Each structure stands twice: as structure tokens, then as C-alpha cells.
């Protein structure tokens, strides 16, 4: 089935998907850098207060088609990804 | 504790969080538009083949600190969000 409008919207969606991927990876790199700085200063890597502050900041700015609870759920998943990454780095550091 | 480097990295992280939020909402709006076009043409809104293609495209382009399985998990969550949105719209349409 040929539908120009649908094809155009799908192309835009593909672009948004790749932009999201790029930002997710950029976020991962930033979290790794933050982990290194914290480690250097003997700070605890996981900071639930800072995580709650980030989430509140995000929800304050939210203005879109999704429910707040849906956005909160997604960002908790994104935060969890970063935590896994830090744990990996730490294990690797201990093994070397 | 004052740490300029940490503050700077956290500011960057906050910016990335808001960019992610903005893209997630843009994605939601695109999915709503796609749903409308599909409805107009009597097409099924949920298309598992197209979803798999999107996911493969994303994974092909992935080049970052996260595991492929982690990226796949996250995007499945993002896709699921969009599906919920379409179901909402549909219910609302039926109620009017």
C-alpha cells in the first residue's frame, strides 16, 4: 500500500528513534564520567535524593501526550540502565 | 561538597534528560498522527512487523556503552507507551 503521508510520518519516527538512541548513549557516557568523579572523591555512586530531584525536574517540564506516571516509569527505567552500567565498570575495575 | 566538575556533568545530564523528554513527547505526537492516518485508511493500528523493523534499525545504529539487550528492552518500553496512547485515543473516540 502506498501512502505518502504515512511514509513521511514513519521517516520522521525513525529519525526520532535514532535521536533517542543517540541521547541515551550520551547519557550513559555522562553517567560513567560522573561515576569516575564520584569514585575519585570517595562519594557513593548511587544517590537516591539526586535521582528523585532529577525526576521531579523532568515531571515539572513535562507537557505532552503521555501521562505523568508513564513518563516517570520510563525515566526510572532509563536511570536503572545507568546504574547497571556503573556496577559493570566497578566490577571490571575490581577484576583488573 | 563543592565540586565544579561534578556540577557541570550534572547540568549536562539534566539537559540530556529534558532533551529525552522532549523527544519522547514528539514521538508520542507522531504516533498519534500515524494512528489517525491508519484509521482513515482502515489499517490495523498495531503492526508487529513494522515494530521489529524499527527495532532492528535502532540496534544496527547502536554504538554506545549499553548492551544491545538493554537498548532493546528500553525501546520496547518506549514502543509500548505509544501503543497505550493509541488505545486511549480509540476509547475516547468510541465514547464521543
From TrEMBL, chains A, B:
Q: Tell me which residues make up the Chorismate mutase domain.
A: 1-90
**Stated name of the protein:** Bifunctional 3-deoxy-7-phosphoheptulonate synthase/chorismate mutase
Q: Which organism is it from?
A: Salinibacillus aidingensis
Q: Which UniProt keywords apply?
A: Transferase
Domain of life per record: Bacteria
Amino acid at each position: 500500500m502506498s501512502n505518502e503521508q504515512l511514509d513521511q510520518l514513519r521517516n520522521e519516527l525513525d529519525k526520532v528513534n535514532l535521536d533517542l538512541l543517540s541521547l541515551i548513549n550520551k547519557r550513559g557516557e555522562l553517567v560513567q564520567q560522573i561515576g569516575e568523579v564520584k569514585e575519585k572523591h570517595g562519594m557513593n555512586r548511587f544517590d537516591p535524593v539526586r535521582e528523585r530531584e532529577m525526576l521531579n525536574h523532568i515531571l515539572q517540564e513535562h507537557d505532552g501526550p503521555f501521562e505523568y506516571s508513564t513518563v516517570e516509569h520510563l525515566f526510572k527505567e532509563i536511570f536503572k540502565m545507568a546504574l547497571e552500567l556503573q556496577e559493570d565498570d566497578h566490577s571490571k575495575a575490581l577484576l583488573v
